Every structure is written in structure tokens, then in C-alpha cells.
Amino acid sequence: MKIHIPTPLRAYSGKQDTVSVNAATVGEALNALTAKHPELKKHLYSDEGKLRSFVNVYLNDEDIRYLPEKDATKVGEQDALSIIPSIAGGCWPHGHTRPSAASVMRT
Questions:
Q1: 5: buried, middle or exposed (CB in 10 Å: 19+, 13-18, 0-12)?
Q2: What global pTM score does this model have?
Q3: Which fold has domain 2-105?
Q4: Across the 107 residues of the chain, what is the mean pLDDT of every consecutive 10-residue run?
Q5: Closest by alpha carbon to 58, among 104, 11, 12, 101?
Q6: CB atoms within 10 A of CB 38
């Protein structure tokens, strides 16, 4: 499966925007990613080993926090994970909506 890396974290993934991993679950995919690129771990996980609260992970277009099995959700070769850091501050102009995770990853 592929994991899409946001621009701010590409310095820790060998400047790759996408990393391919073999995994059966979301958790295994993230573990495989941090095994390939150990510097990513401190940016994705707390010292307690929990995914940081400001890091959003989407399986295809679904936030993994809202999936019934969360990081134990099974994945296939055609699935994609997108890591999207939260951005704080500001507001959207009146009449505009927040862009979707998929549109943010295209930038």
C-alpha cells in the first residue's frame, strides 16, 4: 500500500511524497513506515507510543479515529494512507468551506 507524506514531513522520508509498504493493518503500515524512516516516528508518535493528537491519518478518505477498528483496520495493496498534520489558527472566509483531506494531499 502507499502512504502519502505531507510536505512538512518529507525531510524525514528521504524527500519522498509517497512511501510504499507491505502491511495487513493501518497500524502495521505506520510501523513499516517508521521502520523505513525512523526520524518520522518522533513526529508521528508521542513518547508513550500514541499517535500525536495533531496528526490525522486517513485510510483512503476515512479518518482512522472514526473507523470501528481504528489502527487495527485491515488494509489491502490498493489502499492508501494519507498523513495530514493539523493546521491551527485562522478561519475560512465567509461562504467558503474547509477543503477535504484528499484535496489537501494533492498540493
A1: buried
A2: 0.77
A3: Ubiquitin-like (UB roll) (3.10.20)
A4: 95 95 96 96 91 91 92 95 77 55 51
A5: 101
A6: 10
